[in-house]
Amino acid sequence: MRLSRYFLPVLKEDPKEAQIVSHRLMLRAGMIKQQSAGIYSWLPLGYKVLNRIQQIVHEEQQRAGHIPLLMPTLQSADLWRESGRYDAYGDEMLRLQDRHKRDMLYGPTNEEMVTDIFRSYVSSYKSLPLTLYHIQWKFRDEMRPRFGVMRGREFLMKDGYNFDLTKEDALHAYNRHLVSYLRTYERMGLQAIPMRADGGPIGGDYTHEFLVLADTGESEVFYDSQITDLKFGDRQIDYDDVAQGQAILEEFTSRYARTDETHDEALFAQVPEERRRTARGIEVGQIFYFGTKYSEAMGATVVTETGERVPVHMGSHGIGVSRLLGAIIEASHDDKGIIWPEGVTPFHVGIVNLKQGDGSTDSACEALYRELKAAGLDPLYDDRDERAGAKFATMDLIGLPWRITVGPRGLAENKVELTSRRTGESEAISPQEAIERLK
Ligand code: ATP
Ligand code: MG
Ligand code: MG
Ligand code: MG
Fold first, then answer.
1. Which of 138, 178, 259, 323 to mutate to test the pocket of ligand 1 (most atoms within 8 A of CB)?
2. pTM for this structure?
């Protein structure tokens, strides 16, 4: 993409409404525009990152054997009356009526609808296990929408639902989700710590939230510092391997890590004092096994091998896709702007032309631009007629991991500068070497 032809409305001034750094940087970098409280347009740069995050989520879910589909945003109230949640959900639910005065709602989550899909088509244990998921917009009429996309009212969520014959099978699905989430967050350059969560009115031990540590997080968290040494890394995973899933669950959840909702002072006191940490965190996902709550209420049953009809065991598992942009920026920025992890960056590399209009500098930039694209990379070429300082400031703000700076002085020696956004280190190398390095 050539910056002169792109749509990147960067702001020079800090927007007053933004209280936290990710919100400020997303507005300044021209990624989002608020349309009403907690409802945003995704401008091209923001939309690009959102798509990269979705892509990673899709890849990791499908790697785990989970099946994508797409359910609508608008739902009929009748389904929610069946589960009893239409009245229970409260003011966070946006309710509306169609022209026939039928009660509808903008889905805040999809347990009811996916259970309805399941019961409409599945009747035998032979169809299990099954996990269906989608990435779809949700609406929750939050009391205090704030912090940009972190607490929106309309937000994008991946929500997946497992259907299993037995509790054991459903707990394997739970572990599969835990493992796939650990991989997903690490690919985005994030450390998200599974913490024991509150089962709410359903209760139960089988729910974990994934938290990214950040001072601006809305949850207070308590954990054993050993947990931050755990890395998922490049392990071979067999998602059908029940023992492996259980071992990873134990590895990542055996140390103390809880949010304020489940914090237990007495248990925490058993952690050696020098390892006890209190901090703040951003909830970027949650997994939940809830048994037969919805399947019983809504008649989602299968016939077993012995001919018995039983309700299926279910769980639901969510990733805050749009919130992740904010969380990644909270975890990765400096005073000049965003620092995108390679996995989610909107463009792989920026090209800065120090002397726009100079014949040989222009043609060196054009050649680089062409060859980077031919190598399968997605470069952003700043070909505007601007001062070098302004071009650097824009690149730093939008946070591409690499910058190639091209000027007449370097070119005289066949050199360009390759700069890492994260370390700030620069190297003078030939354009060809720069391309090789980025491939
Ligand atoms: P929170 O505690 O932040 O209100 P939640 O526990 O109500 O979140 P879940 O129902 O667990 O949310 O939804 C799954 C994920 O969706 C959350 O882990 C979070 O990352 C994301 N999410 C929830 N509410 C919002 C929101 N208002 N804006 C953006 N993302 C959200
Ligand atoms: Mg909530
Ligand atoms: Mg929560
Ligand atoms: Mg939650």
1. 323
2. 0.97
